[in-house]
Amino acid sequence: MIGYTTLGTNDLTRAATFYDPLLALLGQHRLWAYERGIGWGTTADVPSLGVLTPFDGQPATVGNGTMVALVAATPDEVDQVHLLALTLGGQNEGDVGPRGEGFYGGYFRD
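Above: the chain sequence. Below: its structure as tokens.
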């Protein structure tokens, strides 16, 4: 049902510096890039993630309560992604660990 998700940014260069290594760790690469945005994924026929400056020209703002879940193959990969996100300047929004039966996750804000 989901084709892609986009996140707004006010600094595309900084966003690329954050998301390029983070998404590469999950096996994603740039599918497209142009002056307003960048999109990462594996192929164009599966859901992807884009970071763009807002179309209306207004500043991008934080979507409080908005969450995008990135798929990781193992708990170790979750740990690696969370640590890398924090190393790249992200904020910890929830330490990694079990979140109920059969679910392991961590949360960060870019």
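The longest strand covers residues 91-98.
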